[in-house]
Amino acid sequence: YLNGEEVVDEARINIHVTVVNKYLKELAKYCGIFKKLSTHVARHTWTDMALKATDGNIYEVQKSLGHTSVKTTETYSRKLTNYSRTSVVKDVLANIKKNQPS
């Protein structure tokens, strides 16, 4: 959506997020998921998965989410643990791949 632009148009992003959230709601209904799905929920899930994949490295997860404060990242985590330091994306993707059916 950003196409390499340096200035981010927040209104444009919000429109896209709204559309994605609408489709996530429809997808959940289609799949028989009775919990709310949204991009916001996805950030919570990502945070939990990233913390698990990095053995609680809150600082790498903070960077991956673009938070300026660890406190913000902690609010996204549903499972508070003892945090440590170490790169997240590679570990999360490896964890996802490992748990996919063959």
Helix proportion range: 55-70%
Global geometry: globular
Q: How many strands, what sense, and barrel or not for the largest sheet?
A: none
**What's the helix-strand series?**
HHHHH
**How far is the N terminus from the C terminus?**
32 Å
Q: What class would the helix/strand composition place it in?
A: mainly alpha
Strand segment tally = 0
Provide the residue-averaged pLDDT: 81
Number of helices: 5
Please tell me how large the radius of gyration is.
15 Å
State which percent range the strand residues make up. under 5%
Ranges with pLDDT <50 over ≥5 residues? none
Textual characterization of the structure:
The protein is an all-alpha fold and 102 residues long. The protein is 62% helix and 0% strand. The protein is built from 5 helices and no strands. It has helices at 10-31, 39-53, 58-65, 70-76, 88-98. The chain is globular, with a radius of gyration of 15 Å.
Give the tags.
62% helix; 5 helices; single chain; mainly alpha; 102 residues
List the helices and strands and how they pair.
Elements: H1 10-31, H2 39-53, H3 58-65, H4 70-76, H5 88-98
Helix pairs in contact: 2-5, 3-4
Quick summary:
This protein is mainly α and 102 residues long.
